[in-house]
Structure formats: structure tokens, C-alpha cells
Design a protein that fits this description.
Blueprint lengths: L13 H11 L1 E2 L12 E2 L7 E3 L6 E3 L3 E2 L9 H16 L4 E3 L7 H12 L6 E6 L4 H14 L5 E6 L5 H14 L2 E7 L6 H8 L6 E5 L11 H8 L2 E5 L6 H6 L6 H4 L6 H10 L6 E2 L6 H8 L9 H12 L2
Parallel strand pairs: 5-6, 6-7, 7-8, 8-9, 9-10, 10-11, 11-12
Antiparallel strand pairs: 1-2, 3-4
Length: about 325
């Protein structure tokens, strides 16, 4: 998974944002998340959850990615990230996605969740990103050490690197209880057909890939195939590597969106994704607690119906 960090809430003029939040109307205290500036919720008391098809376990539809944003050092950066994770948890988010590719991210996740007091209330996902059976085993064991887990919720094969070799190890580890779920990932449209080929033939629980209001290739075959085969899906690059916020910078969220429980551009982009019935969880990356809280709001309130989805896509396509 490759995404880039964004300062996604800065595009809309402040008066428009305040008005949008007023229209949503309910204080964060409804979920015990008071103190997060600009965080409002609808009367819906919990985040929308979707089932992991292979087990029917429920997973909240918005999580957090750690590419670049968690590859940090220093007390001040760690303090902000700890508050970011707490904001995700308080709003009902659960999945944290990382990888050995992401520098210090796995280690930082492990350190901060251990300090959080809610360490065992997250769903931990990471990846194997190397070649060879023994190298893969060593890397996965190191990931578990860094993330301070005795078992991993989800282990994924990053960008399909040596996937046939690692899949055999993951099946063994799942049987032994070292991991709970097996997944594969990629981040480009050009690899969607290969993902489809693999999930059509092999026993996998999750598939992670890129999808956004600007990049809808996954709607053609990959999302329907995942749904047909009973796989959970994790969506990366939800903001199209930050391009979406460049398009809407300085523009207010349209009134017809605020009338449908969409009050910021972040929610606009994420709700478009979550409203697809084959999407299990989307993982926007951020190191800002306020942005994390805003991201989580995409799991609350009404989701766009097909007609509204197309209206949203048409608006962004015209920019």
C-alpha cells in the first residue's frame, strides 16, 4: 500500500466548514469524544461496521494507514501520533495498517499502542515484503516484535512480492494461530487483474488495493470479484495521493452534500468509497488528531446512494 500524507481539511473556507458542522448538528460527547475540535457526529451512536466474510467478524469501515505518517522519531511527533490513535479509537476506528516498507512505522505503532492503554482494542495489519521463505519468516517475526503482538490480526503479502512462497507460510501460520487472517495487496490499476487471478484460485481472507472517486478501475471487476468470492477489502490511496484535495482547495463542500451528512471534503471522498457495498474498510493516513477524527466521520450518517455517488463523481470529474 502506498499513500501520501495530506493536510486534507484546509481546502474549505472556515465559514463553510463551520456551517457544515452546524448542519450535522450533534456533539462528539454522544460518543465520549469531547475535546476534539471540530468533531461532530450524527445521531448514529456507533461507526458503521461490515463483516469479514470468512468469519463474520465485524470491522469498522474506517481505519488508519501508516505510510510516511508514522515513520517518525522524537517526542513531539510521538505525542501527536498517540493522540491520533486515541482519536481513531474514540470514534470507533479499529484497523491499523502498516508494513516493513514503511520505515519505523511498525515500531512506532507498537510503542504508541502499548502506551495508549487500549493496546488490545485495535485490529493490527501488516505485511511481508521480501523474497524467500526464510527471509519472509524472519521479517514477519520482526514485524510482530516491533508491533508488540504475540499474534497478528492480518498478515498481507505486500505488492505480491514472492506471493506463492509467502502464501504457503501464511497458511501454516494461520493454522498455528500466529495470524488470524491472510491478505494480498497492491496499489496500481495495472495489477488489478493479477489480484483477481489470485483471489479466484487461492484461499485468502483480505485483498487490499487502490480505489478512489478519481480512480474507479476497481469497480469494473475487482470489487465485484471480491464480493463474489467472499473476501474482505481494504482500500488504499483513498485521496489519490493527495490530488483530490488539490482539486477542491478553496472550494466549499456543496450544499447537496451537507444535506446528505457529508460536511467536509475528507468525508466526501471517503463516503464515496465506503458507500460501495463491497468495501470493508478504507485506510486514510494522517498524523493529525483532528484530521483522524474527521476521517472517522465517514463511518457515520447516511451513505450516498448510486445516484448521489454519480453526482459526486461528476462534480470531481469536472474540476
Amino acid at each position: 500500500m502506498i499513500t501520501k500524507p495530506t493536510n486534507h481539511d484546509s481546502g474549505a473556507p472556515l465559514p463553510s466548514r463551520r456551517e457544515a458542522l452546524r448542519l450535522l448538528a450533534i456533539s462528539a460527547s454522544a460518543l465520549g469524544v469531547s475535546g476534539l475540535t471540530g468533531f461532530s457526529l450524527t445521531t448514529q451512536s456507533t461507526m458503521l461496521n461490515r463483516s469479514i466474510p470468512s468469519t463474520k467478524e465485524k470491522l469498522p469501515v474506517v481505519g488508519i494507514g501508516t505510510w510516511q505518517t508514522f515513520d517518525v522519531s522524537g517526542t513531539s511527533a510521538h505525542d501527536e501520533l498517540l493522540q491520533t490513535l486515541k482519536a481513531v479509537h474514540k470514534a470507533g476506528g479499529k484497523l491499523i495498517d502498516s508494513s516493513p516498507m514503511y520505515g519505523r512505522s511498525e515500531e512506532v505503532v507498537g510503542e504508541l499502542t502499548a502506551l495508549s492503554g487500549i493496546q488490545n482494542q485495535f485490529f493490527y495489519a501488516t505485511k511481508v515484503w521480501t523474497r524467500g521463505r526464510e527471509a519472509g519468516i524472519r521479517q514477519m517475526e520482526e514485524s510482530m516484535r516491533k508491533m508488540q503482538r504475540t499474534s497478528m490480526d492480518l498478515m498481507q503479502i505486500h505488492n505480491l512480492v514472492d506471493w506463492k512462497t509467502h502464501l504457503e507460510t501464511l497458511k501454516t501460520w494461520k493454522t498455528a494461530g500466529k495470524i488470524r487472517y491472510i491478505g494480498i495487496t497492491h496499489y496500481t490499476d495495472s495489477m488489478h487483474d493479477e489480484l483477481i487471478n489470485i483471489i479466484s484460485k487461492f484461499p485468502i481472507d483480505f485483498v487490499q488495493f487502490n480505489y478512489s472517486i478519481l480512480a474507479r478501475n476497481a469497480e469494473k471487476k475487482l470489487l465485484p470479484m471480491a464480493q463474489d468470492k467472499g473476501l474482505a477489502t481494504i482500500i488504499n490511496q483513498p485521496y489519490a495521493e493527495g490530488r483530490l484535495f488539490s482539486l477542491v482547495k478553496g472550494k466549499p463542500v456543496p450544499v447537496w452534500a451537507t444535506e446528505n451528512d457529508i460536511t467536509t471534503w475528507a468525508q466526501f471522498f471517503l463516503k464515496f468509497i465506503v458507500s460501495h457495498p463491497a468495501v470493508t474498510c478504507v485506510i486514510p493516513g494522517t498524523s493529525d488528531p483532528k484530521h483522524a477524527a474527521d476521517n472517522m466521520l465517514a463511518g457515520y450518517g447516511r451513505l450516498p446512494d448510486p445516484a448521489l455517488r454519480e453526482k459526486m463523481a461528476t462534480l470531481i470529474g469536472s474540476m
